[in-house]
Structures are given as C-alpha cells and as structure tokens.
Design brief:
The chain is mostly helical. α1 runs parallel beside α3 and α4 runs antiparallel to α5. The longest helix is centred in the C-terminal third of the chain and has 24 residues.
Length: 190
Amino acid sequence: MSHIKILEPELAPDSVRAVYSDFYRRMSFPAAPNFIKVQGHSPSAVQGSWDLVRNVLVMGKIPRYVKEMLFVAISKKRGCSYCEAAHVACCRMLGVDQKLLHRLVSDIGGMADYRLRDMLLFGLKCASEPRAINEGDFGVLRRHGLDDSEIVELIAMSALAVYANIMADATAVPPDAMFAEVGAAKSAGG
C-alpha cells in the first residue's frame, strides 16, 4: 500500500498537470506513471523529478536504451522493484531484446558487448560505491571511446537511478498496469 496517495490529473493543480502531460508525451507513455503522480502533491518535487528525468535520462549523448538498462541494473541491485519493472518496460519499448534484458538482470559480466557491459558496471559502481571509483575505471571507459561528457552522463544517470529508487521505495508507489501491459505486448510479439 502506498504511503502517499496518487494524485490523479483531474485533482492536480494546473502546474502539476502540465508536468504529467509533458512526462507522458516525451516518454511515450499512455499516461503519467504512478511514480510521478505520487510526487504531484509537491509541485516543486514533481517538476524537479521531471527536470532530472528529461535532462539526464532522455537527453544527452548516450543512447536512452543504455541509460534505461543502467536504471534496471541499479534498481535490481538496490532492490527497487517498482523502478526495475518500470525501466524493463522502457527497455522493451525502446527495442531492447529479451535475451539482452535477461543477461542484464542475471549476468552483466557475461554480456558479449564489452562496451555496454563496462558502461553498466561503471554505473553500478557509481551507485553503490562511488568513492571506490578510480583512474582504472575511467580508463576502461576511455578505451571504449567514451569522452568526459559521456562519462559525466553515466555518473548523473547512476545518481538519478538512486534518487528514483529512494523516491519510489519511500513512498511505496504502487506498480503501474501500463508497464505490465508493455511487457505482455512485447513478449507476445506486439
């Protein structure tokens, strides 16, 4: 049971409804997710979360599907089932195949794409032990051709995932039916 009630659009002030609308339009969702609607009680919090998602997850040099995969990996490691399910659905919407998603949640180290694997492992380390990151970690990314802009994006994406995990877990946001529907549609070939 959610600790914070979902604020549906019809009950939200205009500024919050505008965030809901922008969120689902830019993210290609059928509606704003519960994660955003529980934050609707605070216009500044919901706007801040949307600004982070839009600027860190949606925009930038690193492809969104990579960022979504990082979100899944961090959420799984941190035990945030809401964020894991939501971002697995996002990966499916973006065309990440089922075999790669399985590898993502079961054995990142066994990924055949070493560049992707190393980006995900770096992001996981950022999320769990940022003070342990060293020059060797940065060197691995640079050998894959990542520049400082892309490395900063990975760090920001890791921080965003941790932030979202905290928001989802602390509010006990309920799962969205739309994410289960995306999973079922993609599994059925839709």
